[in-house]
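quick one before i forget lol
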Amino acid sequence: MSIYKFGENWRGEFVFSKLKIGNRAWLVDEWVARFFEKLDYVNEGENGLLFAEMMRKDLPQVVVPKTYPKYTSRKVLTTSWIEGEKLSQSTESDVGELVNVGVICYLKQLLDTGLFHADPHPGNLIRTPDGKLAILDFGLVTKLTDDQKYGMIEASAHLIHRHYGAIVKDFVKLGFIDEGVNLEPILPVLAKVFDQALEGGGAKHNFQDLAADLAQITFDYPFKISPYFALIIRAIGVLEGIALVGNPDFAIVDEWMTPIHILPSFMKYANMRLCIKELFLGFEEDL
């Protein structure tokens, strides 16, 4: 038995993918928890304030509506007004640059701050008149642990250099594969999926294709999509969809796997020397 509906694509249309029944309870629990949080405007306002503070120093190109806590309650959210147009509909020449800012912003959330804005549909990503990227609506936010962030940093380094044997072990740490599962049957399947993603790009092998391939693996092998990662897949797929409108050759995997984008996140964690060495040199030897 399987369930459908992974999330929505960048146009707000439903994207259907098969998921093994073992994932169903996890995903439903995650969605229900996030939906109840989304109904609490005090929580949403606090998320917005925290997000803005986390981005202010490193990404001044990203702006967030200011929340006024004094005039906010559980049922009423009061923020500043931001002028602009949907990034997905803008014809300005800097749209591509702002998409890249968005990619870096979401990398920072995922690998650094851990406060992840999980609802980046086109109405929530705005180009302001002065050429900045405004992010709206912080009702749907997921929070990542340090172990999850560290695990994704390691997996990113291994993926850049196609160390798939290490990646399957990373997936055990991240909860995608249970401890004790035989990794040998899964390894060649994952290698094929990631090879296609790294060699393709653009509309041919975009992130949503990668997500669909991973979803199929959950149906055929003992591989599961963790609830927090389902929200991440949805968010990244939406961001890529917006980029593909203006640039059909855009490949978010290429942007994601740029070492200079990932490196700042490494520096916050202990025991990162080996991971940094692998990121740039592509091998694992004792330091």
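fyi Residues 227-246 form the longest helix (20 residues).
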